[in-house]
Amino acid sequence: MSATGIAGRDFNIAVNGHRGVCAMAVFLFHMGASGILGWPSGSAAADAAYLLWSSCAFGVEMFFMISGFVILGSLLRHATIGAFLRDRFARIFSAWVPALIAVTLVCLVFRLKIFADISALQALGLFIANLLLLPPVLPLPLIHLGSWSLTYEWVFYLTAALGMLLLRRGLPRRWAVAAWVLLASTFITLFPRSLFFITGILVFTQRAWFEQHRRWLRFPLLSLLLFLSCWRLTDVYEAGFSQTLLDFLRDGRWVPALLAFAASIHMFASICVRADWQSAFLESRACQFLGTISYSFYLWHVLVMGVVKRIVVPPVQAELGAGVAFAVFSLLSLVVALLVSWMSWQLFEVKLATRMKQAMTRRPVLRDAEVVHVR
User: Fold this and answer.
1) What's the pTM?
2) Residue 40: pLDDT above 90?
3) Where are the alpha helices (DSSP H) in 110-235?
4) How far apart are CA 20 and CA 295, in angstroms?
5) Counting Cβ atoms within 10 Å, is residue 259 exposed (0-12), middle (13-18) or buried (19+)?
6) Is residue 36 situated within a structural domain?
7) What is the pLDDT of residues 259-294, one digit of tens each?
8) CB distance 275 to 4 below 8 Å
9) pLDDT score, position 203
10) What range does the domain containing 190 cover?
11) In the 8-state DSSP scheme, what is residue 363?
12) Which of 302, 303, 301, 289 lies closest to 346, judged by CA?
């Protein structure tokens, strides 16, 4: 069946593999940003390699493309908005809470500066704010450096749910869509990296059109490189949360941003409809495994890298040099992160999330004759 057929709306094997690529891109970025080795510079080739490596940070934006594509389908499949939000809550918080607790404990053990010079009450307040994914919507420090993306995800879920709720309550379609667009546009203006949710939304809503025009979706690797390079030119990573799309409009960065957005649509549409052989590797077992554990991998790899860097790297670097230390750091971090992420997926994303959904779902009391076991 086509990737955009009925079965494909529930699970798209190429999109799942793309999740794994996104997670690995973020890992590679953090690996290079560890500071164990200085990045080479001084030549055109070295500078180009640096730009390509630093663009791996935008694996997060590619995650947003996937969410835009998947979440609309999820909204349509759920009978009620409440069921959709319960499903999303279990999906996000089942793995997020354990990861945040672990990161917080490591920060306290190693006395990292985020908890330095604050009282126990302030530390508790900071933990609760991060638990509820309030930063960076509120100007508070991030305990887990990747949690901002979960905040963006929640805002997307809530605005999409509100738009669907208005639609199901009888509001004319154009007004329901307008309300969602207004809320989403406001958030995207304030936080430009959330722009790429729209990529997934457009590909999902226009998937039949993209299927009919597959010949235009060749060479997704080229559009990937164009997306990464153009989005890198906006300096959005360096700006953090301090700049908005209005700043892009004022200083001309809207041009590379627009090119990056167009390239993202071409790339992601090509992947979703499997239009070119260049994305065939996404269906491999390695990509599928990484895609399955990608959320846990995203949450846990930074913690694993931090512990390995503090405990393993110093003695290795002292004895064998920075090059060997970096190799040991990279390999050990990857192996341990994969193992921890697989365990997190099994324990939290599958078992705990299932129990959370069951606990949040009210079941009618059935008579004995009506009770059946359904798997």
Assistant:
1) 0.91
2) no
3) 120-131, 147-168, 173-190, 197-205, 207-212, 220-233
4) 9
5) middle
6) yes
7) 999 999 999 999 999 999 999 999 999 999 999 999
8) no
9) 97
10) 6-359
11) -
12) 289
Which residue, among 265, 131, 136, has the nearest Cα to 191 in the 3D structure? 136
Q: Are 169 and 81 in contact (CB under 8 A)?
A: no
**Number of residues that make up the chain:** 375
Q: 270 near 4, Cβ under 8 Å? A: no
Q: Omega of the bond prior to 136 within 30 degrees of 0, cis? A: yes
Q: How far is CA 212 from the centre of its chain?
A: 29
Domains: count for the chain: 1
Identify whether 370 is part of a domain: no
Rounded (to 5) percent helix, strand, coil in the chain: 80, 0, 20
Residue 374 lies in a domain: no
Q: Under DSSP, is residue 171 helix (H, G, I), strand (E, B) or coil?
A: coil
Which residue has 């809320």 as its token pair?
Answer: 183
Q: Give DSSP secondary structure letters for 38-79.
A: PPP-SSHHHHHHHHHHHGGGGHHHHHHHHHHHHHHHHHHHSS
**Does residue 213 fall inside a structural domain?**
yes
State both tokens at 73: 């389908």
At 352, the amino acid letter reads L
pLDDT tens-digit profile of 299-339?
999 999 999 999 999 999 999 999 999 999 999 999 999 99
